[in-house]
Write a structure and sequence with these properties.
2 copies of one chain form a homodimer. The N and C termini of chain A lie far apart (71 Å). Helix content of chain A is 63%, strand content 3%. In chain A, α3 packs antiparallel against α4, α10 crosses α11 and α16 packs antiparallel against α17. The model of chain A has no long low-confidence stretch (mean pLDDT 95). With 496 residues, chain A is mainly alpha-helical. The interface between A and B is large, with 39 and 38 residues.
Amino acid sequence: MKKAYEQLQTYLERAQAFQTARVLFEWDNETLAPKAAGPNTSKVVGTLSSEYFSVITDPEVKRLAEECKEEALTETEKAIVRELTEEIEKLERVPAKEYREFSELTSESARIWAEARKNKDFESFAPTLRKLVEYTKKFASYRAGEGQKLYDVLLDDYEKGFDMKALDQFFGTLKDQLVPFLKRLTESGGTVDDSFLAGDYSEKDQEAVGRFFAEYVGFDFDRGVMAVSAHPFTTNLHNKDVRITTSYNDHVDDSLFSVIHESGHAIYEMGIPDELTQTLVGTGASMGMHESQSRFFENIIGRNRAFWVPVYEKLKSRFPGQLGEVSLDRFVKAINKVEPSLIRTQADELTYSLHVLIRYEIEKMLIEEDLDVEELPRIWADKYEEYLGVRPRDVAEGVLQDIHWSQGSFGYFPSYALGSAFGAQLYAYMRKKMDFEGLLESGRIGEIREFLRENIHKYGKLKTSRQFLKDVTGEDFNPRYYVDYLTDKYGKLYGL
Amino acid sequence: MKKAYEQLQTYLERAQAFQTARVLFEWDNETLAPKAAGPNTSKVVGTLSSEYFSVITDPEVKRLAEECKEEALTETEKAIVRELTEEIEKLERVPAKEYREFSELTSESARIWAEARKNKDFESFAPTLRKLVEYTKKFASYRAGEGQKLYDVLLDDYEKGFDMKALDQFFGTLKDQLVPFLKRLTESGGTVDDSFLAGDYSEKDQEAVGRFFAEYVGFDFDRGVMAVSAHPFTTNLHNKDVRITTSYNDHVDDSLFSVIHESGHAIYEMGIPDELTQTLVGTGASMGMHESQSRFFENIIGRNRAFWVPVYEKLKSRFPGQLGEVSLDRFVKAINKVEPSLIRTQADELTYSLHVLIRYEIEKMLIEEDLDVEELPRIWADKYEEYLGVRPRDVAEGVLQDIHWSQGSFGYFPSYALGSAFGAQLYAYMRKKMDFEGLLESGRIGEIREFLRENIHKYGKLKTSRQFLKDVTGEDFNPRYYVDYLTDKYGKLYGL
């Protein structure tokens, strides 16, 4: 008689195959698929989702998962069964028909969003967004525990251990500390010239530079590809097929840092060991943990003066006309210019978390306070004016800028700010253990990456973000490190 | 109580989704996937294949398909049930274990073939090829009717109504007529200068030209994409997502005519109506019928002087350095240059079917006469010498040139020659019904395409190729048209 755990494997392989196929369809949809393909392809994706749903909610799977708990399992096996049990609980409460409808909706909605954004036409996306919110709330209500808030259900999906109470506190700290600091900084009158980062940067050259820096920070092109999409993202079929995208405009720093950011995500997934990939624990621990890595590579490494010491000449040689006369210090100041702005993905490191704060507050209103989607453009604009002092002229640079809601992802945004804070806490610890800036200056970035791989990536989903922070830094999550990192770095750069 | 036919739909949708996902993985593998992805992705594709197998061989599916036959079905529904029944019969006789072993073998064997071809090393592929032949024969033997030859079982998969008896006759006609004609032509001593087709044709310009001509002949870029792969091919997820590839070298005509060829395949699939797409009859009728369209666009249209009258200036303006001094007539002669050669995919229109003839004769020997694969390189070379007067110097330009056998496709090759002959028969009929060359000369290619759509494409798999020929031209298949077309066209071009 085979062990229950072994019997489970056939089911898990099937679930894995359906998920992987869905990932490929999503990738294809964002990067290549012809525009008329939508509805027909959605049917296929809907069927694959239903198949996934059927496997996970198969009573036999539940029985085997229960039976496993009596068997002598390794830690990894236990973690897989734990993940499976959570997935079962998450799905079994949702009626199969609704799950399928939602899958079909989300496979269409990103396209509708992209079109609406292009046309700066919120109305054409509003009905879809309303449906997405309704499904999200309904599904959360099926899963909510006794007295549990719906938004807390969603937050838990992306980041275990961080509910509204924890996030109110976290964002409260940021608001209290960063808003006045930002005010001091902008009023200090120091202006930074970053005009040379915009101009005649050809797409071809930007792509070549992007590939160079992706590889330089550790992206392995034998195990990954880089393509173009409207909104940069990372996805992966498994640890040997990890894909990033970027987009190009006339600001060279936009594509450059988006590539380094997505490479951070990719390096995480490429660092998952063969024993874990294609299992339920074979991916990054959480959205926040993922952002901790991508933003670590983008900001803590990529916007660090030390990082540029060995490679700035390389960049200059590709763009002699634009950067030939620009010194390393002027360049580093420019890529760290603080300027309250409208687009989250282009925000500087200091104001970034305020963009996230706005989304957090709006999501709470959408999910907890029945805010109608029609109100969104106005509320969005008001909050930007309040926290950042800027007001979008249209919805493309306002409420339609992010893809997340169009994919049915609510509760995801806070991870961006949490991830940045996790990264800062890791950085503070690493600086005590190694000559961080010295390694960067001598081009030995591989040793930094190796630390992250050894302490984080190789564990996949075997730990939560809070456990990682404790195990690596010896301390629970502490947002103080993030605030200190930012005020210290930008205090120095702006001579405050 | 739902009708059996309705109950079948859920199964068919699932089978369709698994197949579509496999198609996307194949496309991705040929065009983009990183090189290390292979083994992990193969597991996923293997699982999707097994799922397809399970659905089709589910006893409940067979029962419902039987029950359907008592119900009042439309013609389309009947055709779908007929296709399903054939697919069941094809798969249910193969033990699941062997089917999976064969799937795993074929997911590896194309790689082994590619490596062997690169190294010009037949021995490294021979054991795999031997296994492929063995599985093919075994599977055919499971399915063979009383007294039916194994190769006839395989031929029937690609082209219903054409068994060895029919093909011996068809290829016999070609051999009798074309081999002496070719001899006369090559001995006539007329040489054609096509040197200007090779040279400094940049990939970027070739791509732009390819896109122009794809669109000009009717490829709809809202419903399709064009990419690059080692060997040009067409695939489709459904009628609104049809994909072609090409490859670029310094011969502009290679990419140009491969794009027009693949566009012919694509236009066929784009012409499948919405009611049929994503069903078992929602694709081209047969391999031969497909080739009849692709080779119709490539040769009968694309290598026709009339085709170039309105667009040759367009091509010239893109390549003024290379074509500026070349007259339309010289260009048309060059793209129709006859020259016995070694590589099928680069063969001219006249000698093409002799390449196919050789493969047909060899496949018969492999499947029916127990020819050992070790003999292949020699037999291949001998036949090329006999029919075409050229002898390969190595296996890369000999027996290892085609991917088909490495994918387990035996019985496919004859479709290429049949398709060309179907096309010629359609052409002969169309010339009686419309001013074919006049339409081309005035750029009204859409009217020709419309005829094909209306008479062929829109029926999907509702008819066999023989039925199409009868219904459209009023006559059963007649290879005479093909021979006449070739001897007439090339007799004139070469002044014979």
